[in-house]
């Protein structure tokens, strides 16, 4: 998914943007813009993409029966 060619444009993972806060990006072409913004100069950089946070596993929700193959 990170290297998909048909990625939805977003300034937070554009080649021309540098993240300056959680909701702002410094764009080399447009200046300070919203991290969720987009423009026609968008060039995808997969190394700027942050993977989603992991979901923590709560073992109290399950019993031993949930993990058996029988």
Based on the model shown, name its key terms:
single chain; 0% helix; 3 strands; three-stranded antiparallel sheet; elongated; 70 residues; mainly beta
Descriptive report:
With 70 residues, this protein is an all-beta fold. The protein has a domain at 7-47. It has no helices and three strands. The protein has strands at residues 17-21, 24-27, 31-34. The chain has a three-stranded antiparallel sheet with strand order 1-2-3, with no helix packed on it. A hairpin with a 3-residue loop joins strand 2 and strand 3 (31-34). The chain is elongated and about 60 Å long. The model has no long low-confidence stretch (mean pLDDT 85).
Topology:
Layout: E1 17-21, E2 24-27, E3 31-34
Antiparallel strand pairs: 1-2, 2-3
User: What's the pLDDT, averaged over the residues?
Assistant: 85
Assembly of the depicted chains: single chain
Principal-axes shape call: elongated
Which blocks of ≥5 consecutive residues have pLDDT under 50? none
Strand content: 15-25%
User: Helix fraction?
Assistant: under 10%
Class by helix and strand content? mainly beta
Distance between the termini: 35 Å
**Tell me about the biggest sheet?**
3 strands, antiparallel
Work out the radius of gyration: 19 Å
Biggest β-sheet: strands ordered side by side in the sheet: 1-2-3
**Element-level helix/strand string:** EEE
- Number of continuous helical runs: 0
> How many DSSP E strands?
3
């Amino acid at each position: 998914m990170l290297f998909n060619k048909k990625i939805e444009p977003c300034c937070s993972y554009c080649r021309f943007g540098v993240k300056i806060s959680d909701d702002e990006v410094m764009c080399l072409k447009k200046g300070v813009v919203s991290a969720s913004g987009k423009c026609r100069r968008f060039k995808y950089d997969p190394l700027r993409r942050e993977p989603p946070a992991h979901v923590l596993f709560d073992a109290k929700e399950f019993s031993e029966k949930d993990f058996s193959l029988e």
